[in-house]
Amino acid sequence: MTFCFKPFLIFCSLFWIVSCKSQSAISATEDKKGPIINDTTFVNLKDYSQNFVYDMKYATPDNFLKEKVYDCAACFLRLKTVNALVEANKKFMKKGYKIKIFDCYRPLDIQKRMWKIVPNPEYVANPTKGSIHNRGGAVDITLIDKNGKELDMGTSFDYFGIEASHNYLNVSQEIKQNRGLLKKIMIQKGFNSFDSEWWHYNLKSALKDSISNAKWDCN
Ligand SMILES: [Zn+2]
To answer: What separation in angstroms does the CA of 179 have from each of 163, 193, 202, 213?
Structure first.
């Protein structure tokens, strides 16, 4: 019995190591020429543009979870999301602004923790369906001016209240214009806005991509 069981155990351990590795790290499939990159490959935004400003809230305790839940600040997205975002940023830069990024791809485990704290689909996607963040197609962003100052959007990022809604019109003309500018160009470049959060944009062509729980490499 022991004689038969040992090889089986070794086989299981190897299988576990291989399958665990494939779930835990973002990496492109490789062939002899190197990584195979296509539209849905997860890539790091900084490898495609240096023109973004980062304030990755979940890599710090400054978020509604009150905890640093990412090992390091990095913006991973599917390549098609990166391409659309880079195009949008070029348009903003022509007008004297730049995109500042709060969140990008988000592993499903983090979504589950968010849902436990805010089980309200107006603000946090139910992890059983998954957020577009979990699919690598959503970004949380704002705009900064030439001095690096954030434009006034009326509320802070992750403000869970009616005041953060595109439909809430009891805001100043300046705030309406700022939100309107962000929305107009993001929509032109292939994104949908999300009514209850002025900072959230989904790439239309990424809505049906698969959900992932892979973590990115911080090295
Ligand atoms: Zn979001």
So the answer is: 12, 11, 16, 31
Ligand 1 mean position, distance from CA 138 (Å): 6
Question: 217 with 26: CB under 8 angstroms?
Answer: yes
Q: Which two structure tokens, joined as six digits, stand for 204?
A: 């239309």
Q: How confident is the model at residue 6 (pLDDT cuts 50, 70, 90)?
A: very low
Average pLDDT over every residue of 200-213: 96
Domains of the chain: 36-206 (3.30.1380.10)
CA of 105 to the centre of ligand 1 (A): 9
Structure-token pair, residue 136: 């690598």
Longest pairwise C-alpha distance within the chain? 78
- In the structure encoding, which two tokens stand for residue 94, read together? 């022509």
